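Field reference: "sequence" (input) and "structure" (output). Example, Protein-L-isoaspartate O-methyltransferase:
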Amino acid sequence: MAQPVSVAQSSYGMISERTRLRMIERLRQQGIRDERVLAAMYEVPRHLFIDQALATRAYDDVSLPIGQGQTISQPLTVARMTEKLLEGRSSPGKILEIGTGCGYQTAVLLRTGAQVYSIERLSTILDKARLNLRNAKLVHARLVHGDGNQGLPDVAPFDGIIMTAAARQVPSALLSQLATGGRLILPIGDQEQFLWLYEKTATAIQETRLEAVRFVPLLPGKQ
């Protein structure tokens, strides 16, 4: 893991090294083992991605509102999905994110070394994500205002696809944009949701159901 700085400072106040390290220790206890993911989770200043009024809860293991009915996922969910996406891969490769939100998951992926493309349907949320990523000095993702159900066929195939909104079923367009050997992780369901992992081989797509989760729904179109 990269050497931690003594204090992370922002317009929201002082976020101590100890606070971040507590989050990392909690993630280890919760089963996160990939050091790339743990380093990225430490290095990304989560407090820059939420409203000032909630900054003191930035490193708690909770999801928090970011406006327009959207949320930033709890750290464990972000770490778990990222770890599963990168599992067995020495290099993260090219990743498509469906649902940019506040940009936090985007930032974590960037810190693992991934080449990130991210789609957000809400223009005002996307504008916030751009600002958050600039403030965090992570500006190398390609952010797109669009319908995540359609993916980005012009840029495909992707080594990994991660969705941060719950679909009723896996969008077929996303499976078709997954490279052979690639992984797609997403929540599926309405009232009851589970994470699902899809792995594309040369001859088939393997499905694995993971743990129960709670995400906002995946909606069509863009606003």
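DSSP finds six helices and eleven strands in the chain.
The two ends are 39 Å apart (CA to CA).
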